[in-house]
Amino acid sequence: MKILQINASYKPAFIYGGPTVSVAKLCEEIGFVSVQPASHSTQPASHSAQPDSHSAQASIVNRQNIEVTVYTTLANGKEELPYKDGEIKTVDVVEVQYFKRITKDHSHLSPSLLRHTWKTLKQFDIVHIHAWWNLVSVGVALICVLKGKRYILSPRGTLGSYSFYNRKSVVKRIFHTLIGKPLLKQAIFQVSSSKEKRDIENILGDNCQIAIIPNFVELKKAWERDWNVELQNVRAELLFFSRIEEKKGLEFLLNACALLNIPYHLTIAGSGEENYISDLESLGTQLGVDQKITWLGQVSSESKFDVLAKYDLLILPSYDENFANVVIESLACGTPVILSPNVGLADYVVEKKLGWVVEQNAELIAQKITSIFENKEGFTTLREKAKETIQHDFAEDVL
Questions:
Q1: Residues forming CATH 3.40.50.2000 domain(s) in the chain
Q2: Among 243, 251, 226, 186, which residue's Cα sits nearest to residue 387?
Q3: pLDDT in tens, 46-77
Q4: At CA 288, angle to CA 282 and CA 292, rounded to 5?
Q5: d(CA 123, CA 117)
């Protein structure tokens, strides 16, 4: 079986954060299946988003000869990866072919990638496209339709309600009506959460073919160490850890901090557009909380779990998250979470009692933080439960 994976960016373009890492992890896990036997856990996964048939499907796949190929661009933020147009690299057992793009924004127009896809599409049994709203994904989807090949699409949050209905989405809605919707009607969807499934059904109706399969999350480094961090007695150590952009809802967290009457410190880890970060820093100053905030910047994958484990709470008040890998990474270290209901893993966190879900309201967020730190009983037990639950539900052999 030959599988073609399409994504506008790929490792080592870590600047794009979670989606790029998740796509790479998926490709690597499929690639590892083809070079060595996979061991299967005897414990069934209890993740509510996992279909019962998934383990059986994985067993079938393991018995097949699988070849994974990735077509991607040289995208690396405003820069390009240092490879030639069409250059092939083996990246952690995966064959990746990188193509030049002629637009360096999120449109990622790459005529050479599209031409090569047109010529080679018939070689592949499965085409799996990741994300939407870029000219790599849309272009390959169009090629598939023209050549009569159905394709799998993992939207990775790009078909969420926020993407469609925020103030910048008028052009998207016009494009969707004229071009996008007919193409999407030909897709088989693979999503990471029930929230993402609902989002697609809201846009395309209930007749879509959708499979819910959680993201693979790289947790080996989280489990290599025995995280044994106690709740701070001096002050509440709060953490935001994600790409810094409008959809993350950081303004709610900053306003919530201004309402806190308990000792606290907030660390904001992640990168983003300089102008937007400057606006948030100005908001912090206006609210009088700037002296209680540390802007940590981008954190390397090597240091990620050391950072996550040091804090009492991870807070993610996003407008939209199809999954949010950082939630699983945080819980794997024993750090509980406060999420908005718009985070794909909110249902899971509530079901497993690994944290709290709070509306995007500064007063409610502040009340929840205060309540947690005024009633610390059971917090240590919660940290241990989080680590054990994630190890059970998200071990690679389970997924």
A1: 2-212, 220-393
A2: 226
A3: 334 443 433 334 444 444 589 999 999 999 98
A4: 95
A5: 10
Helix H segments across the chain?
Answer: 18-35, 54-62, 111-120, 135-146, 161-165, 170-175, 181-184, 194-204, 220-223, 250-259, 274-287, 304-309, 325-332, 346-352, 362-374, 379-393
pTM score: 0.81
Residue 146: Cβ within 10 Å count: 10
> Could you say which architecture CATH assigns to the domain 220-393?
3-Layer(aba) Sandwich (3.40)
CATH code given to domain 2-212: 3.40.50.2000
CB 260 within 8 A of CB 287: no
**Length of the chain (residues):** 399
SS3 for 19-86 is HHHHHHHHHHHHHHHHHCCCCCCCCCCCCCCCCCCHHHHHHHHHCCCCEEEEEEECEECEEECCCCCC
Q: What CA–CA distance (Å, rounded) separates 230 from 335?
A: 10
Rounded Cα gap, residues 278 and 280, in angstroms: 5
DSSP 8-state code for residue 131:
-
Q: What share of the chain is helix, strand, coil (3-state, %, to 5)?
A: 40, 20, 40
- Residue with the two structure tokens 């018995």: 63
How far, in Å, are 232, 238, 266, 368, 374 from residue 235 at the CA level? 6, 9, 10, 15, 11
Whether 278 shows a pLDDT value over 70: the answer reads yes
